[in-house]
Structure formats: structure tokens, C-alpha cells
Design brief:
The protein is 40% helix and 26% strand. It is of the alpha+beta class. The chain has 2 domains: 52-228, Acetylcholine Binding Protein, Chain: A; 232-378, no CATH class. The strands form 2 sheets. Strands 1, 2, 3, 5, 6, 7, 8 and 10 form an 8-stranded mixed β-sheet that branches.
């Protein structure tokens, strides 16, 4: 009885030991069969004029940094590529039912798909999946700095779209036809970014002709739509600017006879606002000055001009006084309904009349601009 137990144990051990060995031998034999005379530099087509269809899809993993001034965006992504290699097919029943093998990417021909508008493109070397029907799938991690066209007009409540162009670097559409993989758009893999939120990811296919060549090239464009998370910028940039503008408007409460004091305060506020814009994270180029910053600076400069006019009145410049006298006469007549006695009462003090008119003419539209800016921008969602 004991001998039978020993024999049974030996048989079971032999079965468990032989099974994986046979599987390993089958896979090794398959790899030798496929790659014995395989060449990684030749497109896997029966005829030279045939085209290899490479289906690609970009999965965005993260946005590291966005530079609006330079028009650059650092991204981390996966590029999924699938194509058919006629030289990598086998009958799975001949090799122990093996349906897929994994081989190093340098051992297989790959389409030279890269990011056209990127520099410092790094594509990691990873394993490639080869299926028994000849389909090959490669999903390498990619990091790159992409060149984009940004518009900072609505900073810091802006939405930006960066276009990432994918295509073969050396093969035209007649040799490698780059297409979009038939999968749903996936936006859930992206890591949370402190400054930007992904709002759309759309793939589009084009065929383009470049000046260098006569052939058409197949290109897949990935439109990355993102929205700035504005809460941080409101706290550190918008609120200080609005505070300076509010202080500038409150200086108009000071009597016009102290226009020199007004002017001093406004000069300090204008200087502070310009320094704040330059030292903040806002775009530094004048062509990228945002509407919000422009409106705030316009209000402060308008108040500055108003007080310059007040000083000229106080110093008795006749040209300024006569011009404003005509303007205030019209305002006085319209308010009094043409009553000459009431008009005489209103214009009894030319200097005071001119000062009040200047304050009204300048301050009312500037207050309107400030209110419009606050209403427009603070109504935008911050997150």
C-alpha cells in the first residue's frame, strides 16, 4: 500500500512539472519560429506599395506645466498603437494554444509615430503584445513639451485648447496610414492638476501636404481642452487689483481742492498695480494683457487724468477753464430746464462748478467699467 502511494505522488509531481515545461518550450519554439529571419527595418507588407494601417489613440495622464508666454505645455501620456504584422502570425493549435506573446519593443517593427509639434519627446521602451492573428499592440508612456497657441485675453478665467499632432515622421500615407483607434474618449486617467482641469479630449484625422514633400501625410490631431482653476488666482491677483481700484475710486470723495493729494495716492496705486501685474503669474507680454488687468489699469489711469485736469483748473489755466465752462453751462441748462435764474445760481461759482463736472464726467464711466469687470469675471465658475 505504501509503495502505491509513493508511485501516485511521483506521477502527480511529474505532471505538474512537465506542464509548465511544455508550455515554456512551446513559447520558446514559437518565438524562434517568428523571429528567426524577422527584420525590424522592413514594413510588414506583402507588396512594397501596400500601406500599413496604424491605429493610434492618446491617453493624457497629466499636465505638468503650461507656459502661456512661450506657448508650451508639458504633458505625460500613453500612446496606444495597433497594427497588423503579416510576418507575426501563427496557428495557436500548433503551439499549445498560445494566443499572445510579449516581446521587447526593439525586436519588432514599429511605426515611427511621434508628436509633430513636440520637442524633447521621450518614448519609453516597453514590451509589445503580439497576437496569433498578426495584430500587434504597443502602449508606450510618452513625455513631451508640446508647442501650442494660447490666448490669455480672459486670464485668469480662461479656457485653452492645445492641439497635439501625431503622425509618422518619415512615411507618407501611402506607406503608413495613421488612423484613430475605435475606442471611447477616456478622460479619467488624468491626474489632478492644481492649475488646470481637463474638459475635453477629442481626436481628429487629417491628411496634409507639407512644403517639403509631394506626398500626403496622415495626421491625427488630439484637441486637449482645459480650463484654469481660478480660485488661487482670484485670491492672489484679482482681489488685490480690485482693492487698488476701489481705493482709487474712494479718493474721489476727497474735495477737488485737494487734487494734489488725490494725485499722489493714485500715482502710488498705479505703480503698485503695474508692479503686481509684472510680478504675478499673469502673462508678461503686453499683447497678452488680459481684459481684467486692462480694465483695472484703465480705471486707475482715468482717475489720474481726472486729477491732472483738476490741478490745471486750480492753477487757473484759462483754456481748460473756458472749455469746461461751456460743458457745464450745457449741463446746467439741461438740469434747470432753461430757467436762466436757476442757471445763474448753478454757475455762480465757476471753479466749483468745473470741479464737480470733471468729477462726474470721469468718475461715472469709470465706476461703470469697474462694476462691469466685477460682474463679468466674478460670475465665472472658479473651479
Amino acid at each position: 500500500m505504501r509503495s502505491w502511494c509513493i508511485i501516485a505522488s511521483a506521477v502527480l509531481a511529474a505532471c505538474f512539472a512537465v506542464a509548465p515545461t511544455n508550455a515554456s518550450n512551446a513559447e520558446a519554439e514559437l518565438v524562434r519560429h517568428l523571429f528567426d529571419k524577422y527584420m525590424t527595418t522592413i514594413r510588414p507588407v506583402a507588396n512594397y506599395n501596400d500601406s500599413v494601417t496604424a491605429k493610434v489613440r492618446l491617453t493624457l495622464l497629466g499636465i505638468d506645466e503650461v507656459d502661456l508666454d512661450a506657448g508650451l505645455m508639458d504633458v505625460q501620456a500613453w500612446i496606444k498603437m495597433t497594427w497588423t504584422d503579416a510576418n507575426l502570425r501563427w496557428n495557436k493549435s500548433d503551439y499549445g494554444g498560445i494566443e499572445v506573446i510579449r516581446v521587447p519593443s526593439e525586436n519588432v517593427w514599429k511605426p515611427d509615430v511621434t508628436i509633430y509639434n513636440g520637442h524633447d519627446v521621450e518614448i519609453e521602451t516597453t514590451m509589445i503584445l503580439v497576437y496569433h492573428n498578426g495584430m500587434v499592440m504597443w502602449v508606450p508612456p510618452v513625455s513631451s513639451t508640446v508647442m501650442c497657441k494660447f490666448n490669455a485675453l480672459w486670464y485668469p478665467f480662461d479656457q485653452q485648447t492645445c492641439i497635439i499632432q501625431l503622425g509618422s515622421w518619415t512615411y507618407d500615407a501611402g506607406k503608413i496610414d495613421v488612423r484613430i483607434a475605435d475606442e471611447a474618449e477616456d478622460e479619467d486617467n488624468m491626474d489632478k492638476n492644481s492649475d488646470w482641469r481637463l474638459i475635453s479630449l477629442e481626436h481628429k484625422h487629417f491628411e496634409r501636404k507639407y512644403n517639403c514633400c509631394e506626398e500626403l501625410y496622415s495626421v491625427v490631431e488630439v484637441h486637449v481642452g482645459m480650463k484654469r482653476r481660478s480660485c488661487h488666482f482670484v485670491r492672489e491677483e484679482v482681489i488685490p487689483m480690485l482693492t487698488m481700484v476701489a481705493l482709487g475710486l474712494f479718493t474721489m470723495i476727497v474735495p477737488a481742492t485737494r487734487a494734489d493729494l488725490r494725485l499722489l495716492v493714485l500715482t502710488l496705486l498705479i505703480g503698485s498695480s503695474l508692479v503686481h501685474i509684472n510680478l504675478s503669474e499673469a502673462p508678461s507680454a503686453l499683447t497678452s494683457l488680459s481684459i481684467l488687468n486692462a480694465q483695472m489699469v484703465i480705471v486707475l489711469i482715468g482717475l489720474f487724468i481726472c486729477n491732472c485736469v483738476q490741478l490745471s483748473i486750480l492753477r487757473g489755466h484759462s483754456g481748460t477753464l473756458s472749455l469746461l465752462s461751456k460743458l457745464t453751462s450745457i449741463v446746467a441748462k439741461s438740469k434747470s430746464g432753461g430757467d436762466e435764474k436757476s442757471c445763474e445760481t448753478l454757475i455762480s461759482n465757476d471753479e466749483l462748478r468745473c470741479q464737480r463736472t470733471v468729477d462726474v464726467v470721469f468718475t461715472v464711466p469709470l465706476i461703470f467699467v469697474a462694476i462691469e469687470a466685477i460682474t463679468l469675471f466674478m460670475g465665472v465658475p472658479l473651479f
